[in-house]
Design a protein that fits this description.
Number of strands: 3
Order of helices and strands: EEEHH
Number of helices: 2
Strand order of the largest sheet: 1-2-3
Strand content: 15-25%
Length: about 80
């Protein structure tokens, strides 16, 4: 993926997306339930920023060949 500036935007429907700053195309979508928003005391956007930050870091590590998936089929996520 070419280097570009990324932005995190909360859309009118409450969905939070990661996209390239120069493009309206969405790279990643994140949604919180009303219960989660209540539990997070309205700080869901800050949580989303942290989640996207870690995801971008991990994507960089994957693109550098640091991680390889050995098995086929579904993975169990923890």
């Amino acid at each position: 993926m070419p280097t570009s500036f990324l932005e995190i935007v909360e859309l009118p429907d409450g969905t939070i997306v990661l996209r390239r700053a120069e493009d309206e195309g969405v790279l990643v979508t994140l949604g919180f339930s009303d219960d989660a928003k209540t539990f997070l005391q309205g700080q869901h956007v800050e949580i989303a920023k942290a989640m996207f930050n870690i995801g971008v870091q991990m994507a960089g590590r994957v693109s550098e060949g640091e991680f390889e998936r050995d098995e086929e089929g579904p993975q169990t996520l923890h």
